[in-house]
Write a structure and sequence with these properties.
The complex is a heterodimer. Chain A is of the alpha/beta class. In chain A, 39% of the residues lie in helices and 14% in strands. Chain A contains eleven helices and ten strands. In chain B, strand 6, helix 5 and strand 7 form a beta-alpha-beta unit. The chains are: A alpha/beta, B alpha/beta. At the A-B interface, helix 7, helix 9, helix 10 and helix 11 of A face strand 4, helix 8, helix 9, helix 10 and helix 11 of B. The structure holds cobalamin and iron/sulfur cluster.
């Protein structure tokens, strides 16, 4: 007598919100391409369980200031474009990036202290150099973030960029800028389900529509806390699919930034022979961090190395082959 | 389906004699349903009830051991679908496939590479688990000779051969090393099950294209033939199909307590993609999601190291970080004038720092403050690595009596606490070290040259 299989499909009542970045001429912007993420009614890539209408996308990190502390593997792979954010963004687009994550790092008081004027000029230049949608990051210092992100939001009016990071300590200013200029925000909280939820609620209370919020749950790299992110993201996604509206925003992870801080990616000096080929190790540190986070619900992955962009896109292609 | 406490209660003696250590049969039944006690604690169950309850009380994913008695690899026994519910307990075994068509020298080199690979990370020794020797169309004696070579090494074995005669030759050559054998499918099942029983080797059942119903029937047959140590290959080789199959297997076993699929799964990472990077990426997915055995084709140390790291991460206890004992650690043979560095007792943090200090070749005192196992910034944000905590660590360890200076280096990430710490430790000079541990060697050089 043949055995009958039990039903193992979960039925979810929740759905991830669809968020679109970038606006084309029809919507008052100039983007040649826009991306929509979210919309899932299933756990990551479990196509048998529900809909996964949009593929996760790759954003390439671009800075307005040539990075000083990057691994030489990265600086050699990009070459001269690192000196100019416009050329860098154009090159990233050629390499297959789907979003440009522009960091206005030169505004940091210790890294150039540039202001609103320079921020506007950079945003303008990058918008002209690429057809892709933008995420725009401040330098991570509260006063300067407020200064340059407000300016950037105005300069990019109509383009539906995402402003980040929008955190507990500065969300009022950033959300106000997004409201005034029709932009989205990246809501970042330190790997905690309740904090993520709380920030989404606060942002919602200011009147920003749910389809203009992306969550960054904070990522640890492979070997440096990734298991915490894995579990927090999984819990966020389960809560969202179970119907918790305050956690139904798409998820963004800064896999490149975290992975390339790890010693394994950064250096080949004085490391054990068992660590193997440095270039391959660096790529895989970023790629395997990304694969793990794709599995827990990442909708946008911000990456650093040109070759990882194509490796992770390959993984997404494979995972989107519905079964 | 798992039995409820009430259902179990109905099968017990219902005398509340307390011999099991619980006040009532019902209380005992509840514990049994939650898998928190062994049935054998109650002396009053009939053989018939025992058989019924045994199957309901057994772990939902069977524990399967591969390798010689004493130092075997154990896989299975998982009890949760999501890691945050409880820990994933038995790490998947990582194997490298060696095909019989390799020439002898290449075979020996790759075998040694796998057997010799060990690496320390966060105080643990990590390494691959073994090799999978695939016969393809090699004759029995060739297969047996290769298996014999591998059986002499300290590695676990998977024997891959569809022809039962070839497999038997391999099993003989494997001696006491209890290999996992692969594959049994509809075509050769009976003969393979017989071999598995004779040689006491766990057996992989191979399905096709993720058809779990057919696989469950194969398993059911094997159990009826008296074999319990099974491993399942759902027959998927890609990313999405494997994720789907392994997830459904795990859920069927754990959420539905469906016996015929309650066995560890094996996954082949090298058959989907081209090249070591893509293979390693797919293997990452297998580590994250539910594989019990992972077979790779490319031996690349960099790829292997990233996978061993991921495996170590995912299989930690989500409730309790790995910690080291707080206190004063001597790195090298520090003297009175050697520098003092302070860090937290999160294992990862401690070993990152200790490793760099050691690598720098300059003896130092490493003061490990009790941060309840949290990293530097996490502990700082939680108020467990502030001036007060560090001040306490300085006092408790009596470090001041061992050194001739009063300088302490704090992690660059918590530069902001230096003012408060100066107040807490009056008379001490607070030095702000680099942000990342990787900067420690050059920082120590700089300190020495400024003395
Ligand atoms: C994993 C993690 C957690 C885990 C805990 C992991 C653990 N056991 O510590 C969990 C999820 C529990 C957690 C919780 C919280 N976290 Co947390 N967490 C992280 C995360 C992702 C990684 C931390 C990590 O493991 N790093 C790896 C270790 C090795 O790094 P490290 O200890 O700093 O050591 C390095 C250096 O400092 C240096 N070093 C160490 N010692 C020394 C000593 C000397 C002398 C020198 C020179 C150098 C040196 O060497 C090491 C290697 O380079 C970071 C963000 C990130 N991506 O880094 C946030 C982060 C640390 N967390 C943060 C916060 C705010 C929290 C919470 C307060 C949030 C909350 N829920 O309320 C809680 C606090 C805990 C609590 N209340 O119980 C913030 C801290 C904010 C800040 N900048 O001050 C961070 C930075 C995230 C963020 N960007 O906001 N967290
Ligand atoms: S030992 Fe058995 S019969 Fe006695 S109380 Fe416990 S469960 Fe009931």
């Amino acid at each position: 007598m043949p055995v009958a299989l039990p039903e193992v499909k979960e039925t979810w009542s929740g759905k991830i919100v669809e968020v679109t970045l970038g606006a084309g001429p029809d919507k008052g912007g100039t983007r040649g391409r826009t991306v929509t993420v979210g919309g899932e009614t299933a756990l990551p890539f479990l196509h048998f369980e529900g809909q996964i209408p949009n593929r996760p996308v790759i954003a390439a990190e671009v800075s307005d200031r040539a990075p000083e502390d990057w691994s030489s593997l990265l600086t050699e792979a990009w070459g001269g474009v690192l000196e100019d954010p416009a050329s860098w963004a154009a090159r990233a687009e050629e390499l297959g990036a789907e979003v440009i994550a522009l960091s206005l790092d030169s505004a940091h008081p210790e890294r150039g202290d540039t202001g609103a004027k320079e921020a506007r000029a950079t945003v303008r230049k990058v918008l002209e150099a690429t057809s892709l949608p933008l995420i725009i990051y401040g330098p991570g210092q509260i006063d300067k973030d407020n200064e340059v992100l407000v300016a950037a939001a105005e300069e990019a009016k109509g383009e539906r960029v995402a402003l980040g990071n929008c955190e507990e300590k500065n969300y009022r200013t950033i959300v106000a800028a997004a409201l005034a200029n029709d932009q989205a925000v990246i809501a970042k909280t330190p790997i905690d389900v309740n904090l993520a939820k709380q920030l989404n609620v606060l942002i919602g209370d200011m009147g920003l529509a749910r389809d203009r919020i992306i969550m960054d749950p904070t990522t640890g790299a492979l070997g440096y806390g990734i298991e915490y992110t894995y579990s927090v993201m999984e819990r966020v996604r389960l809560a969202a699919l179970t119907g918790d509206a305050a956690l139904q925003e798409p998820l963004l992870v800064t896999a490149g930034y975290e992975a390339w801080r790890a010693k394994e990616a950064r250096t080949s000096e004085g490391v054990p022979a068992q660590w193997g080929d440095w270039n391959q190790r660096g790529l895989l540190w970023e790629a395997n961090t990304s694969v793990t986070l794709l599995g827990t619900g990442a909708d946008i992955l911000v990456l650093r190395h040109p070759e990882t962009i194509s490796l992770v896109k390959y993984a997404v292609d494979e995972l989107m082959k519905g079964v | 389906m798992a039995l409820t406490g009430i259902a179990i209660y109905k099968m017990l003696a219902q005398t509340n004699c307390k011999e099991c250590g619980y006040p009532t049969c019902l209380a005992f039944a509840m514990k049994l349903a939650a898998r928190q006690v062994e049935l054998s604690a109650c002396p009053y169950v009939s053989e018939e009830v025992k058989a019924q309850l045994d199957s309901a009380a057994a772990p939902p994913v069977r524990l399967v051991s591969v390798g010689p008695e004493g130092h075997s690899l154990e896989v299975g026994n998982e009890t949760v679908v999501y890691r945050h519910e409880k820990t994933f307990v038995h790490q998947p075994g990582v194997f490298f496939r060696l095909r019989a068509d390799l020439d002898d020298q290449a075979f020996a080199e790759r075998l040694d590479a796998v057997a010799d690979y060990h690496i320390e990370r966060v105080g643990q020794t990590l390494g691959p688990d073994g090799v999978a020797i695939e016969a393809d169309s090699a004759p029995a004696d060739r297969f047996a000779s290769l298996v014999g070579k591998a059986a002499g090494k300290d590695v676990a074995l998977i024997l891959m051969a569809s022809d039962p005669a070839v497999m038997e030759a391999g099993l003989k050559a494997a001696g006491a090393s209890r290999p996992l054998i692969y594959p049994a499918d509809a075509a050769n099942q009976e003969a393979m099950v017989a071999l598995a029983k004779t040689y006491k080797a766990p057996l992989v059942l191979r399905g096709a294209d993720g058809d779990l119903e057919a696989l469950a029937n194969l398993a059911d047959e094997a159990v009826k033939q008296g074999l319990e140590d099974l491993v399942l290959d759902p027959g998927t080789r890609g990313w999405a199909d494997s994720l789907s199959a392994l997830t459904r297997l795990r859920r069927a076993a754990i959420k539905k307590n469906f016996r015929p699929l309650g066995y560890p799964a094996i996954a082949f990472a090298g058959e989907a993609g081209d090249g070591p990077e893509k293979e390693a990426m797919l293997a990452s997915q297998f580590i994250d999601r539910y594989a019990g055995f992972i077979v790779l084709d490319n031996f690349e140390p960099a790829a292997l190291y990233s996978l061993l790291t991921l495996r170590q991460n995912i299989y930690t206890d989500p409730q309790k970080p790995i910690q080291v004992t707080p206190g004063l650690y001597e790195i090298g043979e520090p003297k009175a004038e050697s520098p003092v560095l302070v860090t937290t007792n999160f294992s990862l943090t401690y070993f990152s720092v200790a490793g760099e200090v050691e690598g720098a070749g300059r003896p130092a005192w490493l003061l490990v403050s009790d941060s309840e196992g949290m990293s530097v910034l996490t502990a700082w944000a939680a108020g467990k690595f502030d001036a007060e905590a560090i001040g306490k660590a300085v006092k408790n360890t009596g470090i001041a009596d061992k050194i001739s200076h009063k300088k302490i280096v704090i992690p660059g990430a918590v530069a902001t606490i230096s003012g408060e710490l100066e107040e807490e430790l009056s008379g001490w000079e607070i030095l702000v070290g680099p942000r990342e541990a990787i900067g420690i060697p050059s920082y120590l050089r700089y300190l020495a040259s400024n003395n």
